Records
---
Amino acid sequence: MQFQLSGQQIEVTPALRQHAMAKLDRLTRLDEKILSLSVVLSVSKLQQRAEGNLVVNGTQLHAEAIESDMYASIDILFDKLIAQLRKHRDKLCDKHQREVRQERQYG
């Protein structure tokens, strides 16, 4: 899996990178088929923004979080991405179960 962390008008410190890498572990435990994740951190006056694009087999998920603390915005970003990934996986599982059910009933 490719992981890219960049900053706009902010220097990505080793502490920020380590915090994001620790949160990345939660995503990889949830799904091993993640192709890439790109996170962009930016600052605009008092708003700390974290945006993420997650590419999974078959789809691309996007989330963003705006907080007054960068660490909090990273936490919220990863929470949103995890919720979206779970929802995507549930849709795939439901779709496959529906096909199997129909095949058993009519096949």
Note: The chain has a mean pLDDT of 89.
---
Amino acid sequence: MRLTMKSIIHLVLAGGFMILCLCGCNQHLQGEYVEYAVSENEELGCVEFKRLDTVFRPYGVIPNSDFRGDQVGKRDDNPDAKICQVNDYPTTEWIIEYDDVLMGGGDMLYKAVGVTDIPDELEQFKQYDY
């Protein structure tokens, strides 16, 4: 099989186009996260996150990142703060707030309002009773 100059140019252009598409898709996936609305619950004296109809309140600090999963969102008032899934648990019940700068002592674990079945491995981190 003999490649002509025209065939080589087409292969190079097609390869370049594929690389651009893949890079563009990767940037889009990494840069597009769901925003979690942040509000101050003055009655309870805590910060709450809200996503759709679910309200999350602080549960406690996890001192290491063993439970921190993939980033699923960001705070609407601080896009540098990451909202991550809790490994092996649904994001409709549990989330973690992680900030490289502010959370040097651990990740803040949040529980959705109404969740009453607390897994044993998360029970140990309970610091707040909201």
Note: The helical segments are 5-31, 120-123.
